[in-house]
Design a protein that fits this description.
This protein has 220 residues and is of the alpha/beta class. It has helices at 32-37, 61-66, 77-82, 87-99, 112-116, 120-129, 155-168, 181-188, 205-217; strands at 2-6, 24-26, 41-44, 71-74, 103-108, 137-141, 173-176, 195-198. α2 (61-66) links the parallel β3 (41-44) and β4. The chain binds 2-phosphoglycolic acid (PGA).
Length: 220
């Protein structure tokens, strides 16, 4: 069971308050060092596919490894929606990170319109077609309509999507989208839900801790 906290572009809590927690933390770049220093398992929120070069605003795997980062988030829907991230760039970032020895959480998921048009499986198939199984690759199913909206997939809907994803690519699958202390147990109890990618609730130490404690109680 893996719980990851995605702080997005928020400063986030004091990393020292999270010390000892069995979780991955994905803070903004400026807080990576503090999180590593506090002994947290620290992932960055993006990585470029080249080891170095003239790519203003990007960061590479060797630069992240140098500060003690051990993994990266790739393909979050906010990157896809607002920053022109494509399946192709997701694939390049993922491959480069894994080749460099970083762990990867690669995100997939359909929008509300795609679900309404019954395209969920086609979207997932397309997003996953560019990825290959790897021991350090974890997927996150994040239905876009459930991110930051307070709408959560039902445990049954999450289970169905996770089982479909695993039929296409053999990897653990985290659920993401408005995971909170009060819905975590039911989602994490699903057989193909292997953890959670938590946004909003990871910014509050008590909420995040509660979700981690719930996960620890679920037999693996
Ligand atoms: P949320 O975000 O928990 O705030 O919905 C999840 C995510 O974007 O990873």
């Amino acid at each position: 069971m893996l719980i990851a906290g995605n702080w997005k572009m928020f400063r986030g809590p004091d990393p020292a308050a999270l010390a000892g927690l069995d979780a991955v933390i994905c803070p903004p770049f400026t807080r990576l060092h503090d999180c590593v220093d506090a002994g947290l398992t620290t992932f960055a929120q993006n990585v470029h596919w080249e080891p170095e070069g003239a790519y203003t605003g990007e960061v590479s795997a060797p630069l992240l490894l140098e500060v003690g980062v051990v993994g990266v988030l790739v393909g979050h829907s906010e990157r896809r929606q607002y920053f022109c991230e494509t399946d192709e760039t997701v694939a390049r970032r993922t491959r480069a990170a894994l080749d460099a020895g970083l762990r990867v959480i690669a995100c997939v998921g359909e929008t509300h319109e795609q679900r309404e048009r019954d395209e969920t499986e086609d979207v997932l198939r397309r997003q996953l077609a560019v990825l290959e199984p790897h021991p350090d690759l974890v997927l996150a199913y994040e239905p876009v309509w459930a991110i930051g909206t307070g709408l959560t997939a039902t445990p049954e809907l999450a289970q169905e999507a996770h089982a479909f994803i695993k039929s296409l690519l053999d990897a653990p699958v985290l659920y993401g989208g408005s995971v909170k202390p009060d819905n975590a147990a039911a989602l994490l109890a699903q057989p193909d839900v292997d953890g959670a990618l938590v946004g909003g609730a990871s910014l509050d130490v008590d909420s995040f801790q509660a979700i981690c404690e719930t996960a620890a109680r679920i037999p693996s």
